[in-house]
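Hi L.,

You mentioned the student needs an example of a multi-chain input paired with its predicted structure. This one should do, with 697 residues in total across all chains.
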Amino acid sequence: MTYKSRECNNIHFQESVRLLEELCRLNGVSGNEDEVRNFIYDFIKPYVDDVKIDKIGNIIAFKKSLEPQQPNKPLKVLLSAHMDEVGFIISGFTQNGWLKFKAVGGIDERILPSKKVTIGPQKINGVFASKPFHLKTKEERNRIVKVKDIYIDAGFKSIDEAQKLVCLGDYACFDSDFVFFGQSRVKARALDDRVGCVCTMQALKNRYTFDLYGCFTIQEEVGLRGSQTAAYQVAPDVALVLEGTTCSDVPGVDEADFSTIIGKGPALTIMDKTCYCDRKFTEYVYDTAIKNNIPVQYKQTATGGNDAGKIQGQKYGCRVASISVPCRYIHSPVSVMDLHDFNSYILLVEKVLERISVEKEMSFL
Amino acid sequence: MKQTLLKLCEAFGVSGNEEEAGKVIIDEINDFVDEIYKDPLGNIIAVKKSKIYRADVKKQKIMLFSHMDEQGLLATYIDDKGFVKFSPIGNFSETSVLGARVRFQNGVYGMIGCESSNNSSGNMKMSRLFIDIGAGCREQAMQVIRVGDAACFDNAMFEMGDNIFAKALDNRAGCAVLVEAARNIKENKADVYFVFTSQEKIGQRGAKTAAYYVNPDIAIMIDAASSNDVGSSQSNAIRCGKGPVVRIKDKSCIYHRDVRKMIEEAANELNITVQYETNENEAADAGIVCRQTGGVPSGALLLPVRYCNQPIGMVNIKDLQDAVKIIIKLVS
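Structure written out for the whole complex:
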């Protein structure tokens, strides 16, 4: 089924959706981002002046400024998105060929039963298995099944058969197709943070009056790791962290706890557990959205965390703002976002970069 | 000293929104330092260069640092009746702030209320508290408040003898000490950096970039120490009025022995008794500073503050004056 949407039918946006669809098909669990990294690298190489992969696997792309605003020191702007997604790693085998695993990144165990995965470089199919409901004791039925009591069933009958095709340390990824549904919704895994990757990839096509760096980082989901070294190398003045974020506007939740609302536009974070974003820069982004009639909202909770905190505190520090696409059911195989939000997100980032490029004096500096 | 302290306490400076407090600090020290720099995280870094150093000896850098941010509330949601839900900034409990008066940066006042069903303290959760600014509905509230606005606790000061009650003593007391030190240090052998850091209460964020910029040889933190001299307290409790506190270790740092000795010797020469503290629960800016660049030997000289995590606290002005004297002695 293809999607049709009157507002989102321009060629540029259609390409963004196509890129997102391709990226969401690639496996990139934290620590194993190769497929995603290779795809992004090949796409951006023709558009940028320099691109390298640093020692731990971050992509750092550079685009030199047009005639600089300050002759001796052009402003350095960093766009950052993480390539990795939450998933699993195979941690053992049982004699009967079941696979033991550990979660990589924050995953609620309650969502595992009845989900599918693909395992290892050959993408072997598997499903999560645990004690059937009708065999559980009363006490077990009331308990959440822990990861240690869940196994992956990949159809192997013995440990020997399993070990022929699966190694310890192989990664397993949720198996979930990219599906358009409703008026303008998409369901997929890894929208967090392939949306940020696509946005950065598109932004790197343009040239501005400042030095633009695009960083695609590793291992955000397991501790905001790649961004530290990437930000250290770039040492930007200003950074935009592009993410997917929680959206809990579902039945049973108090409106005050919605965090963000789907369809209301990209969300700006003021404060979360790892970062208090630069007030003036965040307002600058908000103001840019209003001036260009782009829907925008503030994230209304202070929970969660992303690369912004690590980027803000590297070396001499930089002014950081965080823009995210609201994603319902984040960190699950059925993340849902609205295409209008995705469109506004990409447009907003473009407009912010244009404005920084054009203005002689920026109000937030 | 008292005037400086009160001016600093009154200023608005909730973590992430320290501009106003920063301005007051800059005004106070401007005439007494050689350079002032404000970094991207809002830290204020002032330096008093040494005029008496010997050209053949490598000049040292001493960094004295105090966080200038205070605890407060971040407005996260305005409901249709005009009540403002918030996220706490800092480490206070629900029961200590219920009924407190707060002030937003733009001057709007409010008080903290609680949803009335079942108010026993066991049942109190931060998520059931809200700020009541007196608005009748969302539209009226949104004319003056937006999501993302920060509010500080608001209380008029009062005093008895040397004891002063005010808001934000954690850590404007420390900032006041640094300001007075900046005013009175005349013959420093090393370059002395007076650093007022941001965002300490939400994770010691400012200290990281400030320390990277200064790259000091020695660092001394001037912060507030929670005194526990109310009710029936143990013999090793920190007390207000019994002298500044030398911290030996806390959750984030074991303070360097040599720096501690420097502080102790300065106190001894002045006949000032200090108190000692080991604190298992708190992380401090010093933990971040001591790990920057190649590592920085760090010490801590703290002011006893009663009711640190509550809307209004208390200090004894003599403790602050003693701390200033110790600092002047050890840099001269």
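You could point out the following to them. The interface with chain B takes residues 237, 255-257, 270-271, 274-276, 278-279, 282, 298, 300-302, 309, 312-319 of chain A (CB under 8 Å). The longest strand of chain A covers residues 238-246.

Best wishes,
N.
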